[in-house]
Design brief:
heterodimer; A: mainly alpha; Recoverin, domain 1; two-stranded antiparallel sheet; two-stranded antiparallel ribbon; 8 helices; globular; B: mainly alpha; 10 helices; coiled coil (chain B); cytoskeleton (chain B); Dynein regulatory complex protein 10 (chain B); cytoplasm (chain B)
């Protein structure tokens, strides 16, 4: 409904906003202040910008921005257009609550509304893109109810969604 | 036609011989029976026998008169051949007969004399008329003859044998006498009939006769009419015939004419034909000669050809014989080959049948194996499906885990950064 010019300018401002956000997030990890970050920090930067890519997706994104001869660093020059595009297209958005719930229900083979700690460990370290020991412990500390030693995943999801917002 | 005419003539068809049958009952009811039986019966006498004495007498007198007349008629004959009959007649009769002869001769002489004198005249009664004296003389003679005859008759009556003998000579009787006797017997019959019928019957008879005559008249009329018709028919037929005759005559003349013309025509044609024939003959002779010549020539040619052909035939025969020999050889070879082939074929056939049996056996085995194979296949399919299902489930699980992991990593980073920023914000009081 808005005139084209106005819409264009609006888009320009949105892009500028997004690019600023990206640059800010990038600079947090640019320890040497030379518009480069360690390649291992890229996952953290992308996730900090509100995306939830899987490890394989992250790998694809990295392949886009890496130098022809890997140096172990990623330049902002390359990262900025790729990330702008990802955010403009709203790719790798966190999955909605109901789908997350359904994912837990798939793992809950007995359909009893909760997973045991062992089950969670088993699934998270053996299936999908297995967690490292460290990651696993982080998750367990947040998700497991220490009294029952189970994961009431419905409550856990609600908690995470509330935190995110 | 005959029956038609008969009905027209109204002929009474009943035959007269039926009268003998019906004559039995005549004495009682003559009239009735006569009417009943036949119209002709009416004409017969009412009864067959005379009833009264008078009538019987009348008839017997008449009979006697006839008998006498018969005798008298023969007297002249007897007197001529008197000697022949002398044995039968007897002396008395002979004497009287001789006397009679004499008397009759005298009378004849007298009559001839009278005739010669031209005095002979005949009156109504047949008596001779002459001079008074002569007449008397004649009458005397007549008397004598009459009495002599009476005498003779009386003698004959007394001698039935003689009378029978004389009557046997009847063939010599004169014709006039014969007629007279016949007349007498007719008269006797007529009289008898008259005496046998009553007046009433007579009247009926008359009536019947009238009817008959009337009918006859009608019949004659019809006949006349028919005859007239016939005459006209004949006339027309004659006319027709005449016409036909004329036509025939015409045709005959025409035929004659035709014959003549045709004869001349034939002659002419014959002449022409002869001429033509002669011409043709000449030409044909010439042709014949020519053809003969040709024939000679052709025959010569033929002979040459025959000789040539014989030579070639001989050559061909030789060739044929050779070829036949070859063919025979070929056939023999062929037969041998075929025999070999046959035996070979039989061997192969035996092998084939054996193999066929084996094949059947193998087929049986194959069927069993196939069944097993299909079972195994089924099992494999089932297990494959199971595996696929498990894989699918696993994939779903992996995806679910990945989702959770990705979400959690994002959540973890953001929550960590948030807590870091809070710490920083507290420390640096940077923009929020």
């Amino acid at each position: 409904s808005l005139p084209k010019k106005e819409r264009d300018s609006q888009t320009q401002t949105i892009i500028a906003d997004i690019q600023k956000k990206i640059t800010d997030a990038f600079e947090v990890f640019d320890h040497e202040c030379n518009k480069t970050v360690d390649v291992r920090e890229i996952g953290t930067i992308i996730r900090s910008l509100g995306c939830c890519p899987s490890e394989s997706e992250l790998h694809d994104l990295l392949a886009e921005v890496e130098e022809e001869e890997p140096t172990g660093y990623i330049r902002l020059e390359k990262f900025l257009p790729m990330m702008t595009k990802v955010l403009m297209e709203r790719r790798y958005r966190p999955i909605p609550e109901d789908i997350l719930l359904r994912a837990f229900e798939v793992l809950d083979e007995n359909k009893c509304g909760h997973l045991t700690k062992e089950e969670l460990v088993k699934y998270m370290t053996e299936e999908g893109e297995p967690f490292t020991q460290e990651e696993m412990e982080e998750m367990l500390s947040a998700a497991v109810d220490p009294e029952t030693n189970t994961v009431r995943y419905r409550d856990y999801i609600t908690m995470m969604v509330v935190d995110e917002n | 036609m005959a029956t038609k005419v008969a009905t027209m003539l109204q002929l009474p068809y009943e035959s007269t011989d039926s009268s003998s049958k019906s004559s039995v009952g005549h004495s009682q009811t003559p009239k009735k029976s006569a009417i009943k039986t036949s119209p002709l019966k009416l004409l017969d006498p009412g009864r067959s026998k005379l009833t009264t004495v008078e009538t019987k007498r009348i008839v017997s007198v008449l009979d006697e008169a006839i008998f006498k007349v018969e005798l008298i008629s023969l007297i002249s004959h007897i007197t001529e051949f008197l000697d022949d009959l002398s044995t039968i007649l007897g002396s008395e009769l002979m004497g009287t007969l001789k006397e009679h002869e004499r008397l009759s001769n005298n009378m004849e002489a007298l009559l001839t004399q009278l005739q010669r004198e031209g005095l002979k005249q005949e009156d109504g009664r047949g008596d001779l008329v002459g001079t008074e004296e002569q007449i008397r003389h004649l009458q005397l003679h007549q008397q004598a003859v009459k009495s002599s005859i009476r005498n003779i008759l009386r003698l004959f009556q007394a001698d039935p044998l003689a009378s029978q003998a004389v009557r046997d000579e009847a063939y010599a009787r004169d014709l006039s006498f014969e007629i007279f006797i016949k007349g007498l017997s007719e008269f006797r019959g007529f009289l008898l009939e008259k005496l046998l019928t009553s007046p009433l019957e007579e009247q009926e008879k008359v009536q019947f006769m009238e009817e008959i005559s009337l009918r006859d008249k009608k019949n004659t009329e019809t006949i006349a009419a028919l005859e007239a018709e016939l005459a006209t028919a004949i006339q027309s037929r004659d006319n027709e015939i005449m016409k036909m005759n004329a036509a025939i005559r015409d045709l005959k003349s025409h035929l004659l004419h035709l014959e003549k013309s045709s004869e001349s025509h034939i002659q002419r044609t014959k002449q022409e034909a002869e001429k033509l024939q002669k011409g043709e003959l000449r030409i044909s002779q010439a042709k014949c000669a020519k053809i003969q010549q040709d024939i000679h020539q052709l025959r010569a040619q033929l002979n040459v050809l025959i000789i040539d052909n014989r030579d070639s035939e001989l050559a061909l025969r030789k060739k044929k014989y050779k070829v036949e020999m070859e063919i025979e050889n070929w056939i023999q070879k062929y037969d041998a080959d075929m025999g070999e082939k046959q035996t070979e074929f039989e061997e192969v056939d035996a092998v084939y049948t054996e193999e066929k049996a084996q094949l059947a056996e193998l087929k049986e085995k194959y069927a069993v194996l196939e069944q097993e194979y299909s079972q195994i296949k089924e099992e494999r399919k089932r297990s494959q499906e199971k595996k696929e299902r498990a894989e699918r489930e696993l994939a779903i699980m992996v995806r679910a885990a990945t989702h959770i992991q990705a979400f959690w990593k994002g959540y973890l980073v953001r929550s960590l950064l948030k807590s870091k920023r809070k710490k920083k914000g507290k420390g640096k009081k940077s923009k929020k």
